[in-house]
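seq:
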Amino acid sequence: MQTTETTSDSGTLLGPQTFKQAKIEHYLQRAEDYLQMARYRIALDSLSAVNHLDPDSSAASSLRKRIEYFICSLKRGSLTAEEAKDTAGPVSGQKARRGELVLLVDQDERVLTSLALTLRRYGFSAVGAGSYDEAIDAVLEYNPDMVVSEVNFENGSLGYDLYLWIRTNIGTERLPFLFLATR
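struct:
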């Protein structure tokens, strides 16, 4: 039986088992890197495109209306929207109050930053949290008007746990909650 020996990047000789194990670890690491990139790629690409919108363009106006409509409908119930005439105007009915505080919960600081910048461009205030525990502290400290949270955290906590905590505590049980899924 013939055995194959290979040298590592550092020049040391690897036996067949060590080489096989190193190769497996290398591919597992690459797979993990690709999964991590894919997880946020769509969200980051979309948010990047949003950040480059001209605030006075029709695309930005349409997006602003959709965001306001969605946040208002979560916060206050129903909302009526009308087709814009020649220029972009506000959504009729009940509008979002400018400066409302949105708590953003995501482990990826790039996602938090991009979402916060986007919300601030449309007049909302935003505060970020990177974990379940930070989110609970932020809810208690800042009393946000809405929570936008990712679904899964790397430390095992789930956005659902945060949702259940909010729903079962007096004073936060009616806090609007939106899940952010990047898959």
